[in-house]
Every structure is written in structure tokens, then in C-alpha cells.
Amino acid sequence: MHAYMAILGKTGNRPLRFLVVGPSHQGYPIYPAVYSSGSWVTPMGVAEIDSDLGRKLLSKSGIARPDHDGHEGEHSIEVQIPILQYLFDGNFKFLPVQLGDQGMRVAEKLAGEILKLEEDFILIASSDLNHYEPQEITNQKDDALISRVTSLDTDGFYRTLADVGVSACGYGAISVLMYVTRKLKGRMVLIHHSTSGEVNRDFRSVVGYSAIIAYLPDQ
Fold first, then answer.
1. Of 47, 57, 194, 218, which residue is least crowded by CB atoms under 10 Å?
2. Distance between CA atoms of residues 213 and 122, nearest Å
3. CA dihedral angle for residue 12, residue 192, residue 128, residue 20, rounded to 10 degrees
4. Inside any domain, residue 150
5. Signed CA dihedral, 172, 150, 57, 96: sign only
6. CATH number for the domain harbouring residue 179
């Protein structure tokens, strides 16, 4: 919510376009799956897919494919949509892109194809951070990973995931945003970090969350 409020503060009520990248928890389909047309329905109402943005991404892509079925049963992008509906009063379109393979090669290639889009949109990476460890350990692991994100160190980001054992579900989505931001000579800034323990008061087994904003040079 902190990241979305920052977006709201800069954009007001004008119509917006969002490209939302998230993981497949099942690891399938292995390629980036683009839900390229139609709409999604949430308890907040109908959210329209940005079919024009989807068509343009697919026309430039050698790695992403149109695949609606691949999004069935996956929540990583779905959980973002009601927040967008609430804050922007339905005044937006969005394009969901789901990653089965979240490796460095796929993330870098998808980022390159996103950079080819000559469109005005906001890129969102959907992910939580470390899972189901005590508060102190999760904070340590999250801090290690966040430091790689804010320094735009993609190589170090993947090393930290493995060496420290950070169980962030959407690491591929985060790295896509890192690649895009670095290529555009931008910066990424942590604006908030918390854990589930700060809500339910159970600090024995928590999930970490952060809000990190990517700023371009003129912002």
C-alpha cells in the first residue's frame, strides 16, 4: 500500500496503465505468460486488461507468449488488482505477465523486451520476501536482499537469494524491475518494510514485505 500511495500522489486521477509482473508458484508455464485480452473480476468489480499493451509486448517478444490458462489458480498478480481498483477507482488498465522460470536470463530478456515498448505505463513487480522464519532472521535476510535491490546489483541479488537463503516468491519479477530501472539510469528506494508479525503479533514465523519505488532520472 505504501508504494501505491506514492504512485497515487504523483498521478492523481488520470487514467493509468500498469504492467504487472509476478511469479508462478507452480513454476508453470515456464515461459513468461501474458494474459493479453479480456478482463478480471474481483470483489471490487471488473478490471480491464490492456490488450493494446499486450499486443505490442508480444509483437516485440521472443520469450513471452499469450497464455490465459497459465494464470489459472495463481494469486501473485491477482492480489494487486483490488488495491488498484480501490485507489484508482477503476480508472486504469493492466497487463499481467507471469513468470514460471524466474532465472536471471529470462528476467533480463523480458526486461529488454519491456524496454522496447514506446508506451507510458507503470511497471509493478509483485513479490513478498522471506517466509516462515522468526522475525529477527527474516529482517536480516530481507535487509541483505533489499540492499542488493536498491543498489541495482542483479548479480548480487541472485547470489544473495542462494547464499543467504531468502525465500522471496517473486524474485524474478523484482529482477525484471531492477534490470529496467538500471537500463534507464534510474534508482530504487526502499520506502517501507514490515512483516506479518507486526500485524498478527506472532513473531515466531513471519513473512517479510517491502515497498520499493523505482525512480527515473527526471523524477
1. 218
2. 11
3. 20
4. no
5. positive
6. 3.40.830.10
User: In sequence order, what are the beta bridge partners of 16?
Assistant: 92
Contact predicate 106/33, CB 8 Å = no
Is residue 144 included in any domain, yes or no?
Answer: no
141 is written with which cell numbers?
535476510
What is the rounded CA–CA span in Å between residue 133 and residue 125?
23
Element (H, E) at 174: helix 171-183
Distance CA 189, CA 183 (A): 16
Nearest Cα to Cα of residue 142 among 115, 117, 164: 164
> Do 100 and 67 form a contact (C-beta atoms < 8 A)?
no
Look at the pTM and tell me if it is higher than 0.90: yes
Q: Is residue 94 included in any domain, yes or no?
A: yes
For 66-77, how does the pLDDT look when each residue is reduced to its tens digit (9 = 90+)?
A: 999 989 989 999
Domain count, the chain: 1
Residue from 9, 46, 58 nearest 1 by CA: 9
Query: By C-alpha distance, which of 205, 138, 136 is closest to 167?
Result: 138
pLDDT tens sequence across 131-164? 999 999 999 999 999 999 999 999 999 999 999 9
Cell matching residue 89: 477507482
Strand-pair partners of 93: 17, 48
Give the C-alpha separation, 9 to 15, whole Å: 14
Query: Which residues form the domain of 51?
Result: 2-128+169-195
